[in-house]
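Hello K.,

You asked for the raw outputs rather than the summary table, so here they are, unedited. I folded two proteins back to back in the same session to keep the settings identical. This is the first:
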Amino acid sequence: MTWRRVAFVLLLALALAPAARSGHELPVYPSYYPHEIEIATVTPERAAPLLLDGKIHAYVGSAPHFAAAPPDIFVVLDADCSIDTPSLRNLVDAAAVSGRPSQAINLLRPNRQSSPLVQLSTFGFMLKNLVRQRGLQRLAGRVHLTGTGMAMPFPLFRASAQTRSSIVEDLALGLELAAAGHSPMLVSNARWRSRS
């Protein structure tokens, strides 16, 4: 059996395997600091300067309207993720040079004090976001967008407003962009981390 067949069988097995449950799932994932959350309605015109000034950290809605020039590259980072400066630069540079959406490797930080089920879930997350993504990049020339740790030229982000309202927006966005000739690519030297 060739390595491609082995990789295909392995990817197929991973895709068909049932999801592991860690026992701490929530129907909604709140901020880790709920007492600091303030929710307000903001127009797309008002969102851009607030994002640029760092006065808001999250915005849900249509693409912000930047009064002056919009940013060249738009980066998506979940509130519970952390990234180092070199990884952020590598991700932004990859999107700028290629003109394609770029996806960082998004991993959970292992916690040795967690239950075995949580540790197994962390391992499964690594398979999904590292092993599967690398395999997709090699076999298909594209990867899935994971919803965080992604960067893309702002015109691509702005054009995707309808897709971003989907319940599976990251998957739908990646598929829509690939169909339009902008296949997402993996940036192996950019890593996002979240707590497990």
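The second followed immediately with the same parameters:
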Amino acid sequence: MEKSLFAKYIAYLKGFVGTITKKVNDSTSEATYSFKDGLTKKLSADGNWSSLNFDGTRVTADVVSLDSPLPLKRRDKITSASGEIPKVGMKMALNEKTMREIDNLVSRGTADAEIAFLVYDDATRCLTGIYEEIEAQYLQALSTGQILVDDTTNVGTGIRVDFGYLPGNSFGVTAPWSDPTTSKPLDDISTVLTAASLAGNPITLLKMDPVTFNQFAASTQVKEKYAFTVGFSGSNVQSPNLAQVNVMLLAEYRLQIKLVDRVVKNERDGVRTNQRPWATNKVIFLAAEKVGKLVYSTLAEATRQNKAVTYVFTDDYIMLKTWHSPEPFAEWTSSQALVIPVIENTGGIYSLNTEEANTSTQTEGDAVFNYKGAAYTKASAIAGLNAANPQNTLTVSSTDANINKAVNKLNDEQEALFVAALVVAP
């Protein structure tokens, strides 16, 4: 490593970095990253991190190799296990062609500020690259309870993190939201809100992507509810928009919907691909916008700096550096950070899979109950409902439709008990 060829412009670099960081942290800016609203920064002195769940037990969200199983931890006692914060980074090179362009600008007397803008465009991309990766991890973590960085889009180490979303807080629906006629989005939301209320977890915010919201708004149930709310009595009811839906939901349920519409670009081997980190068909129920910590630590190089390298530190956890190499002849810029978004209080977070429902066709009057394409005895279906819900009042004389409705209201934990009791029909 050798000293940067553009050291005279270093003051501009610091200014650019400061401006970008300020814009990212400005909640009124169009460039706002949602992880800035959902996470609070927290320094980890030892480079480890853990997640605090609903009952006060500290449970590590482990970073392990992709092929390894995640360690199973009990939720009813304290554990001192911890995970290591992974490093995020990228590097870019200013090649000879661009340097010749810069030389031409200098010879024509171009202002230093304009030249510096071209020189440090790589620094801007390296800085925002860190923010983009954190945003992708955060949205994936919030919508699924996990972070998966695999080797198909990431150059380097793949990581897998599980924050332990509770199966008892994960629900399916009465009918897929993609079917506007049969779906019952408001009933599905009420099921989750009831479960959250019984557990003492208030819900004020729903997050979903635009596709899911459009399915919600297009459902007959939602359109009829909106028409009733505004006093419309005609037959041609239009789908309400987000603002109209939120007025209705605030009055009915004291909650609001916030859309997540985000694309990030990944690059591997020179090929760029678009990724939507928010999971499809997922609605996440939250008590508030804040859901965890952005845990960061100090890079080893930050305290062992190379005198030939120009360093700029920003936002507490990002290190930018520039340097020159004679072979290959290039001006290098890189960004690095030890940082990870950590979702906490997972016991207060609920999820709804808007396409998860038993849609198998039933034949009323027989002794069979069809579940996800297979036939089981009706008696075992009732036994499964009794195991999943001790308050179940349905019997073998109940209609298949009512049994199916009860099955589709089960959370993932209850559904596992239901499935375990099923007996294949002869």
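Confidence is low (pLDDT under 50) at residues 54-82.

Happy to rerun anything if the numbers look odd on your end.

Regards,
P.
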